[in-house]
Known about the structure:
By secondary structure, the chain is α/β, with parallel strands linked by helices.
Amino acid sequence: MIERLYEHQERGARFLRAPGHNKAALFFEVGTGKTNTAISAVNELPKGKLLILAPASVIHGMWEHYDDLPIKHDYTLMTYEMLSRHKEYSKLSWDYIICDECHKLKSVKSKVSKYVKVLSARAKICWGLTGTPIATDFCDIHGIFTALSIDEFNMSADTFMHRYYQCKVVFSGPNYMIYKPQKLLPGAMEELTTRIAKHAMTLRSEDCVDLPGVTVKQIPVAGMNGPEYKEIAKSIVQQGDDQPDKVVNKLVQIGKLHQAANGFVYNEQKVAIPFEKNPKLDIFKVLIQMALEERDRVIVIYEYVYDYTKLTEVLDSLGITYTNDHIGFEFNQVLLMQEASAIGINLQKYTSCMIYYSYSYSYLEYDQSLGRIYRMGQARPCEVYFMVSSNTIEQKIAKVVMERVALDEAVKELLVALTNEAETV
């Protein structure tokens, strides 16, 4: 049940109900209660048919417990994955649509984005909710707004890209080219944030919720770039030069180097070949014991299945209990989670500590996983540890993630200022 809304949630509900916001979004940071805000706003509308779209993990982790919520409409829960697989659902009609975690719609060319656009065009109301509107650049917000049928952003991805960015050709074919945005054009940041603020309300957690704060620390791991890493890096580069599809092959190279930075590499049969020594596991052994001295439970984020195997070996050797199911976290000391699966699960009541043993270069996945503990209801200061293998590709991946954090914070600061300015007019 929604007993009451916080002041920032009331502001969000007013924004959604305001004239001209039938197609709009809430860019509330992860854990600040945007879902309850949208429910409160939609309940003020005349009774009708409501569609709630969300990722499968969110449906199972949160929305399935909303049976007791006072939603006055006849509502349907549907995952983005289900909509993507069943085009016939896009031919149905709903009066109101809530797109939870709408960053899933960032690619205008994806099937689910196209289907949502068809549905939103017919709906009286379509609201998007996300704490991570920008995973890479402003093209992500263009994709979201296109799917929500916000007319001001109704243009092709290439048109949007060339209007605001210096672009680079990454692929040239006989009939088409693929571009990648590089650098914002002069004045583009100001114009874009002004236009976005008309259709989205942005709030940061520090502006609206009395959270105790979060500290992010990088733990350098020396020795991972030894002879084995260098030999694999050399062979990967040589293999890459021999293969024609350089775009795809570059991604494969990055994956192989990332594996090597974690002390192993998968062969062609998908079997993990471990290095003789793995200093990263040695440091993890010390770090996990230190973390558990100060609290009862810790979340450990990992990227590869082989990481999970080695981490469980360390935990077993220390007599530390663990689980890979968040439902059993209450009865164990460690929750092992793959970064990509850490969405729609609220874990703030169990711990305030998270260790990233290995991770992807996706800022979106980082932000979503951090939001499992740094959210409303967290009573303790949060501590986050990034284990970074020095002088390897992992150091570059961590740098990319932190640069995207800085971009996200800069954009949100501008959008928050514009939101506050609009509210005082």
